[in-house]
Amino acid sequence: MATQVMERRVNRNEIFIALREYGIYFALALLVLGFSIASPRFHTANNFVLVLLQVSVTGIISIGMLFVVLSAGIDLSVGSTLAVAGMISGVYAQKDPTPINIIIALAIPLVIGLVCGIFNGALVAWAKVPALIVTLGTLYAYRGFVVWYRVNPIYDLQPWYRIIGQNSIGPIPIPVVVFFLVTLLASIILNYTRFGRYIYAVGGNEAAARAAGINVSMVKLGVYTISGLLCGLAGLVFTSRLGAAQAISGQGYELIAIASVVVGGASLFGGRGTVSKTIVGALIIQVLQSGLVMLNVPSPIQQIIIGMIIIAAVGLDNVLRKNP
Amino acid sequence: MQPWAVMPSPQDTRIDSTRLANDWDKDKSMEEKSPLIHMQGIAKRFGGILAVNHVDLDIYPGEVHGLVGENGAGKSTLMRVLSGFYPDYEGQILIHDQLVHIESPRQAMGLGIALVHQELSLVPELTVAENIFLGREHPSPIPGLIGKKAAEDQARQILAEVEAGISPKAKVRYLSIAKQQLVEIAKGVSMQSKVLILDEPTSSLTAPEIKDLFMIIRTLRERGTAIVYISHKLSEVFEIADQITVLRDGVKVETRPVENWDETSLVKAMVGRELASFFSNTHAYDPKEVALEARHLTRLPYIRDVSLKVYKGEVLGIYGLVGAGRTELAEALVGLVPSDAGEILMDGHPVKIRSPLDAIAQEIALVPEDRRVLGLVNCLDVKGNLSLPVLYRLSRLGFVKRREEVELAQKSVQSLEIRVSALKSLVTSLSGGNQQKVVLGKWLNANPRVLILDDPTRGIDVGAKAEIRAIIDRLAGEGRAIILISSELPEIIGMSDRILVMRMGQIVGEFPRHQCTDEALGACAAGITMNHNSHPLGAGQLSAMGSRAGADA
Questions:
Q1: Shortest CB distance from B374 goes to which of A204, A211, A215?
Q2: Would an 8 Å CB–CB cutoff place A67 in contact with chain B?
Q3: Domain residues of chain A, as ranges?
Q4: Hey, which residues 7-66 in chain A have their CB within 8 Å of chain B?
Q5: Do A211 and B375 touch (CB under 8 A)?
Q6: Residue A254 burial (C-beta neighbours within 10 Å; 0-12, 13-18, 19+)
Q7: Could you say which of B360, B368, B380 has the minimum Cβ distance to residue A204?
Q8: CA distance A197 to chain B (A)
Q9: Which of A:209-228 have CB within 8 Å of B?
Q10: Residue B373 and residue B247: Cα distance in Å, rounded?
Q11: Is the Cβ pair B400, A193 closer than 8 Å?
Q12: Measuring CA to CA, which residue among B96, B20, B531 is closest to residue B257?
């Protein structure tokens, strides 16, 4: 009797641990399966590629957000940064395709993202303004700048520029390839480099990290810079894919990115989260959106469902975490 | 056999005094005065630890009852039981001979028991009156609103009673700590409390403020309020208390009226415990080369003009009560909070230590007081924690050399006998003792020449304590300079080659090994000059040391 109870308890624990570690992958698989059954159009190879293409821009931003969230910070300015980078890139993509213009059009979004990120990071790390406030401020400021700079969209982008967003390598669209490379690089940084370890340490226990001789301010600057840089990259991909540079690009992306990160099991208090789960989080949200559209669910209802699922996912994660 | 283990024990005198106290208790019970509160066999566990061990205590109206004991003796815990913070206590509480089980602070307040917290519990943005009546707001003539005027009037009256001289309309955040304390007391008075518990009320007060506080306490006593006065400042307890109860390690030593105590007997009762045999001090002690010297280190208001030397291969003990500045001194030495003035020398050369990074470069390491705050990163595994301070040595081009990291972690686990299931286990899954070993191992990996340990055995089980002490002994044997900070007297005495005593941010005494008793150390830390010569070395040595340490600095 007693041993049976013990065994059952052990089994229960194992299930809990498995759910906690891999539950999110099950959830994604279930969603895909569910939509595949519900809509025949869903489980076509074309549609899977489309979902990946759609997730690539917000996915790149989510990876940047993960870096910031791991350090116990937050970056609300991602959508605005994307718009600034995309717009100025578009200005040069409109010009004659001289080598200099091409280089500028490709490089400037990254530089702009970098600068926007450094600005955020410096204020958080050295001026000690709370990250929420700093990036809320720059969410407004960067958006304000881009609207002031060019309120009308630029549509006449050079054909070469559209290649990045609209062409494919084999069956895989280039944005998906870029997203994959970013993912790979982020995984390497977080798992194999000293900087990656320091991010977890700062997010997990800032005081202990400082006591261990870690330059906490530099780590913080680093994560916001990475987030900014990735927003710049996302701006390039986004503008190219859309074939237009718009001042209103990327609105609300900060919320999608945060949602992806937390659905992926990261803690907003820092120190917990992985790249692979963040991608799954982003995919869950994208699959939901695409699937609900295919099922002709009205847009407001879609939003209600997605919102509830975000809460449920994080709530469930917390419950599983408390039950060891 | 270690010589300090056979020092004259206070045992004999205590038997006498216990009998004395019992006799006195009988006398008391013959009078008609009955206790307001009768606590019987009160016990409170935190996990497996018995913080309060079956204590009996009577509190009488119109009396100030001093409750003294070392840090962790269970004073605050006992009073928090009485104030309803720990409803899961064992034992019985009788109020006016009525048996009650106190479930919540609210219920305790209803029964007339008010606790003035060690850390104040006022809402800074509210006014004095609003704080006094927080949770018991006066209704206004308009339903649903709060009667501001009525509250202010009543608050003004109460504040006048305690002669506080504070406007009820003042915002609490603009008041001094002393005034805030008075607001807390006024709050207690406003509830018509029969028992007012003051937990270390003077820890942040100046001398004139203490005087005012005592006047108010006396006024309340005359009105029949019972006051429990928790303190480790013995001089204050002698000044204000009618009864003094001593707790030690959760056990009540005894209660006596203040006239039947003197400072010597009180200190003895507080610290006089058997020295356990599990202290290691086997390393050869030959102080020749100074490893670290601090000169005139100052960071107001925590440390003032602290000068010290620690030699290679020496365990230098630093003893003091909580708040004496020990931790702040350690933090200054490793640059966590750099000092405002003074200098630090390593091997005789002045060095600048403005950040933990500087300290690591100078091979000075601190094993911090609370491993959860400054020691461990919970989200990293055992390996990640062990390698954290030396990761820069273990990486090339920014990439962590994983094999070397694993090797380093394995070495730490073996040499410190850290019991873990895997190097990948999260540190939170470890026992307290093993967590502490991880913190120790992490800093040993930085290969420090000077290792500062701030209360390294606090909150871990007895076996792990002994192991950590043996490691400390071994490290000193390897020629490292060890600074051991502890509030456990037996540990300090058992482990150290030399002991410094801190009080109010200064070093007030220096005791060589073999020449100190725990009474002398305890008295020195509490700021009492022993007037008896029960221990010839104690009193004489102490005053001599005290003045010499001052001159040295």
A1: A211
A2: no
A3: 28-322
A4: none
A5: yes
A6: buried
A7: B380
A8: 8
A9: 209-215
A10: 29
A11: yes
A12: B20
- What are the CA-CA distances from residue A306 to residues A60, A284, B449 (Å)? 20, 10, 57
Cα distance between residue B305 and residue B292, in whole Å = 16
- How close does chain B come to A211, measured CA to CA in Å? 5
Q: B-contacting residues of A 231-290, CB under 8 Å? A: 270-272
Q: What is the ipTM of this complex?
A: 0.81
> A135: closest CA among A69, A55, A88?
A69
pTM of the predicted model over 0.90: no
User: Six-digit token pair at A54?
Assistant: 């759609």
H helical segments located in B284-419: 326-333, 356-361, 382-387, 402-416
3-state secondary structure (DSSP) of residue B197: strand
Tokens of A256: 């999608």
**What Rg do the C-alpha atoms of chain B give, in angstroms?**
26
CB distance A72 to A198 below 8 Å: no
User: CA B354, B355, B356, B362 torsion: positive or negative?
Assistant: negative
Smallest Cβ–Cβ distance between B376 and the set A193, A205, A272 belongs to A205
Give the chain B residue whose CA is nearest to the CA of A213: B357
Q: How many CB pairs under 8 A join A and B?
A: 73
With CA atoms as reference, the chain B residue closest to A211 would be B356
Cα B227 to Cα B66: distance, rounded to the nearest angstrom: 8
Q: Look-up: residue for tokens 């879609």?
A: A302
Candidate from A192, A194, A209 with C-beta closest to B377: A209
Alpha carbon of B105: minimum distance to chain A alpha carbons (Å): 28
Cis peptide bond prior to B512, omega within 30° of 0: no
Q: Which domains does chain B have, with CATH numbers?
A: 3-18+36-271 (3.40.50.300), 290-363+448-552 (3.40.50.300), 377-446 (no CATH)
| Residuewise pLDDT in 10s, chain A (324 residues) | 444 544 555 566 677 777 777 888 989 999 999 999 988 888 788 888 999 999 999 999 999 999 999 999 999 999 999 999 999 999 999 999 999 999 999 999 999 999 999 999 999 999 999 999 999 999 999 999 999 999 999 999 999 999 999 999 988 999 999 999 999 999 999 999 999 999 999 999 999 999 888 999 999 999 999 999 999 999 999 999 999 999 999 999 999 999 999 999 999 999 999 999 999 999 999 999 999 999 999 999 999 999 999 999 888 888 877 654
Tokens 């006014």, residue located: B127
